[in-house]
Give the backbone structure.
Amino acid sequence: MPLKTAEDQSCSAQPKECCRVEAVVAVDGRGQLVVPKEVRENMKLAPGDKLAIITMAQAGEPCCMVMIKAENLATSARQMLGPMLKEL
C-alpha cells in the first residue's frame, strides 16, 4: 500500500470524513468566543497561535465560516485552488 501524502490526508481528499460539529460556542458581549479545551488539544492549538477566519456566501449573504491555523493557510489555499487554476 502506498504511503499517504499530506494532500491525501487533507479534508478535500476525504470529504465524507472532513466536516463535523465539534462544539457549539457562544459569542460573548465583547465579541469573543472560547474554543473548548478538547478542540484546542485535538487541533494542537497553543497560546499565541493565529487563526484565519474564512467566510462563505450563498446568494451574496455570508452563511458559513471556517477557522484554519494561519500557518496552514497557504497550503490549504493551494489545495483548494490548485484544481481550479489547472482548468484555466
Summary: Residues 1-10 have pLDDT under 50 and may be disordered. Residues 11-87 form a domain with the Pemi-like Protein 1; Chain: D fold (CATH 2.10.260.10). The radius of gyration is 16 Å.
